[in-house]
Amino acid sequence: MPQESMAERLRDEIRARIVETTFHPGDLLIEKALADTYSVSKTPVREALQMLAVEGWVTVIPRRGYTVSSMGFHDIREVMELRRAVEPTVAAAAAAGVTTALVTELEELLDQQVAATDHAAAVQAASLFHRRIAAAARNRRAEATLAHLYDETTRAHALLPPLATYIAADSEHAAHRDILDGIRAADPATTERLMREHLTEAESAMIAAFYR
Questions:
Q1: Domains of the chain, first to last
Q2: Inter-axis angle of helices 170-184 and 100-115, to 10 degrees?
Q3: Per-residue pLDDT tens for 62-111?
Q4: Cα separation of 25 and 39, whole Å?
Q5: What is the pLDDT of residues 101-147, one digit of tens each?
Q6: 26: left (phi over 0), alpha (psi -120 to 50) or beta
Q7: Which end of the chain has less Cβ packing within 10 Å, N or C?
Q8: How far is CA 124 from CA 2, 148, 156, 171, in A?
Q9: How far from the centroid of its chain's Cα atoms is residue 126's Cα?
Q10: What is the dihedral of CA 32, 36, 40, 41, to 10 degrees?
């Protein structure tokens, strides 16, 4: 596997800080300040920020720098619409190729989500549950597309505290358990339907949280 460049490592680090909202929407990101923070020259920082601009995480402000992109109602709708377009088919593929190892991993991640004592831990476990299903589908392009959407979803959870109630709810756990059962049964059609229903419910919860 090719080794990541310094710019790529910085891109990943800055993106992670945006996702976890250490960098908030609207925050100004200045090359010199970031270069000092990471003890590097401005060149890899500039390259990292340019990559993040292409990915949509930051917005270029001429002669000033970059700002962290906002996340509003329409952004949430777009993210969840894309997830509904891709993820149910991916989940069906995971069910079609189910392995004992996949079922065991998903069981462990669901247990972690249920046992989580704080919002961030529950979100991380839920995200890993979805990511593991995506990886099991063996479709690299779909997995890469969903990875970005999962990051956007994680950021929405960090920005919308009311979602803590949703991610810890019995209904959320039950939805993941049903999807796991569909995969365990090697039932692609049921798994696809359950994933679509789950994403529709998740979108409704996110939109409701946005307006609280």
A1: 6-68 (1.10.10.10), 73-210 (1.20.120.530)
A2: 170
A3: 888 899 999 988 999 999 999 999 999 999 999 999 999 999 999 999 99
A4: 24
A5: 999 999 999 999 999 999 999 999 999 999 999 999 999 999 999 99
A6: left
A7: N
A8: 27, 14, 13, 18
A9: 10
A10: 30
